[in-house]
Amino acid sequence: MKIVLFCFILIAPVFVQAQSSFTVTGKGGLNDGDKIYLVYKVNNKPLIDSVSVINHQFKFAGTTTGIHSGYVCRNDNPDTASILRDAKNFYIEPGNIMITTNDSLYNAELSGTTTNNDLSVLTHQLESYSRERNQIEADYDALTAQQVKDIEMIAPIRARLKLVLLKMSPVQLSFIKSHPQSYVSLVTLQEIVNNEDMLAKNSAAFNSLSPSLKATSLGLKLKEIIATLSKTAIGSTAKNFTLTDNKGNRVRLSNFRGKYTLVDFWASWCLPCREEMPNVVLAYNKFKSKDFTVVGISLDDAKDKKAWINAISADGALWTQLLDANKKVKALYGITTIPANILINPDGKIIARNLKDKTLLIKLDELLGGK
User: Fold this and answer.
1) Mean pLDDT of 325-350
2) Half-sphere exposure for 121 (CA within 13 Å, toward CB)
3) Contact by Cβ (8 Å): 138, 132
4) Of 93, 237, 321, 370, which residue has the fewest beta carbons closer than 10 angstroms?
5) Whole-model pTM above 0.85?
6) Same-domain status, 150 and 209
7) How far is CA 307 from the centre of its chain?
8) 15-28 and 95-101 strand pairing
9) CA 272 – CA 6 distance, rounded (Å)
10) Beta bridge mates, 353
C-alpha cells in the first residue's frame, strides 16, 4: 500500500510499567516453514526476532517494561523488504497474546490481552471502512510514476481517502468515549488530533480519558497539541517566529505581512510531502505575482541539512525555505503530521489549514483569481 496522506512525526511512546513477560502465539492457516518476524521498539530502538512455523503454529517470548507498538510479518524480512505483503499490527504488553487465522496474518484475529482485545474491537468496528480504504490504496498503487505527479489523477483519489477518514472519525470518537482507560483510545486520538475541523470533539474526547492515560507522556503531549491548536485556529493571529533559511539568513514570519502566505511544513524524508510538492510549486508559480508567497518549514534534523537542500533543488521549491531542526515552530503550531500547511492573510490572520492538491488552487483562485 503506497498511498499515504501524511507522515506521523509524533510517535506513540511506551506506556511504562514494571518489567513483565509476554508471549506471542500464532496458529491456524499458516504454512509449515514460513518465517515469521516480530518487530517492536524499546527506547526508540527496533527489536527484531524470527521463528519458523511448525505444525501451523509459531511462538515468541520475551519481557517488556510496558506497552509497545509492534507487528508480525510473514516471509518478508523487515530489514530488507520494501513491502510487507502479509503483516499484522498489535501491541506488545505483559501476558499471552494470541494471533489466530484461517489464511493470513493480515486477516488474523487478536486476543489474549486487554490492549489487544480493545484493538480487535476497534478493528471490527472500522472493518467496512478499512476495506474501502484498501480499495482506494489499490487504485493508487495502479498509477504510474508519472500519474502520481499529475494533480488531476491524484486529487480525486485523495478526496476519496479523506472522505473515508472522515467517516471513520465518529466511530473512533465513539470508541474513545466507551473505552476511557484503554491505551488504544490514546493512540486513536493521536491519529486524529491534528484535524482542525474536529478540534472541539477531539478536546472533549481527550477530557473523557482516564487520569492515568492523560498523565502518560503521550497524554501530556496530546493535551499540549490540543491547547496549541486552540490558539492557532482559523481566525487567530499567526504566531511569529524566526528561523534560518537555506542560504544562512535569519528570516521572520512577520517579514511576509502584506501578502497571502502559505506556511508549508515538510521534510526531505517524507514521501507524501515530496508527492505534494508539485502542487505547491504549481500554486506558487500561478499566484506569486498576485501578492502570494510560500514559506517552507523543513522538519529535517540539522545533520540532514544536505538532504534538505538537495530536495529543495530537486523539487523546484524555490521559495523561502527555513529549517526547523529543533522543532520549535512545529510545536508552536501543533503540527503532528506532515505535509501540513497554514494559509495566512496579509493582516497576519490564519484563514485556512491543510489545503492540499486542487483544494489549495481553488482557495487561492477564490482569493486572488480576480487580481
Assistant:
1) 92
2) 18
3) no
4) 370
5) no
6) yes
7) 21
8) parallel
9) 6
10) 342
C-beta of residue 72 within 8 angstroms of C-beta of residue 50: no
The 10s digit of each residue's pLDDT in 116-154 is 999 999 999 999 999 999 899 889 888 888 887 787 888
What domain count does the chain have?
Answer: 3
**C-alpha cell belonging to residue 277:** 510538492
289 in any annotated domain: yes
DSSP string of 20-87, one letter each residue: EEEEEEEEES--TT-EEEEEEEETTEEEEEEEE-BTTEEEEEEEEEEEEEEEEEESS-TTT-SS-SSE
| Three-state secondary-structure class, residue 183 | helix
**Which residues have C-beta within 8 Å of that of residue 38, sequence separation ≥ 6?**
24, 47, 48, 49, 50, 51, 60, 70, 71, 72
Pair (176, 75) in one structural domain: no
User: What cell was used for 246?
Assistant: 537555506
Would you state the pLDDT for residue 16?
A: 56
Domain edge (last residue) among 190, 205, 231: 231
Q: SS3 for 274-290, per residue?
A: HHHHHHHHHHHHHHCCC
Contact between 116 and 110 under an 8 Å Cβ cutoff? The reply is: yes
Report how far apart, in Å, the C-alpha atoms of 183 and of each of 70, 188, 337, 364 are.
14, 9, 20, 41
Do 246 and 346 lie in one domain? The reply is yes
Give the domain extent around 181.
128-231
SS3 241: coil
Planar angle of CA 277, 162, 197, nearest 5 degrees: 95
Q: Which of 21, 87, 22, 98 is nearest to 58 (CA)?
A: 98
What single-letter DSSP state applies at residue 325?
T
Cis ω for the linkage preceding 339 (within 30 of 0): yes
Q: Find the helix or strand (DSSP H, E) in which 225 lies.
A: helix 217-231
